[in-house]
């Protein structure tokens, strides 16, 4: 996958570059790396932009400092990928007072006044979680295990991030609909491979082979969890001891889905560069962009036992991963 519509020079008629300050969450995952690359590729000098890129290392205080710095530098636009949803009112008011439009990307902000930001584009994280839970339900039924007692552990993302809130909520909704599903524990893996592994090691010590399903809230957590499960002598996969579910569908995540280590991988698309640029181009023309825009995303599985899932009355195709899908 790649940005395909990059490349229109939008610099203004006097030839000045459009100055964009981007506060990025960090570099915690493969998804994040792809997202940063997408933003850098789109907001290049040859496309008419001067990009000031700030990596906040997963700390909100660093993001607030970066936004204040962008205001001081009098950028034309501030783009924020917020680490968590809350705590933005003050600094976004400062940007508004300075007359700088703020575009939120990826995760959402939870603010008292929606007028504190201009537009948002990102994923429907709760829908992603509901798709995953719907697949688990359909898979277990197709495998003749619909009535079995199922124990699930949730390795959550960064607590308070939209991606964690939505994916956890989607799973909880599924658990609430099944009296035979038990959510043994929810604990954060901070969206990183190292923490995913560490958390899984301790869950295995606590619950051992009682665990049937490991619901990882991103691919990097899944990579760490799989390492821990295999090191403890268990087999992952639909024909193994534990089913691993994941989100993102990065290249490495889909490769693990193709091999069967990850049974279900729900896409979270990171290629937001051109989507943010569309918002900026709309504003440059003096028009009003959509306030909120969800990205369409797919579902990838190891096998073909569940061709589609239904969530809130809508059907979503489940694609069996092949090498061509990854390429
Ligand atoms: O907000 C998107 C999430 O953040 C991705 O699922 C994850 O990999 C990243 O760290």
Automatic annotation (TrEMBL):
GO MF: carbohydrate binding
Keyword Acetylation: no
Main location: other
Keyword Transport: yes
Listed GO CC annotations: cell envelope
Periplasmic binding protein domain: residues covered: 20-262
Coiled coil: none
Cellular compartments annotated: Cell envelope
Keywords: Signal, Sugar transport, Transport
Family (UniProt): Belongs to the bacterial solute-binding protein 2 family.
Name assigned to this protein: Simple sugar transport system substrate-binding protein
Organism of derivation: Anaeromicropila populeti
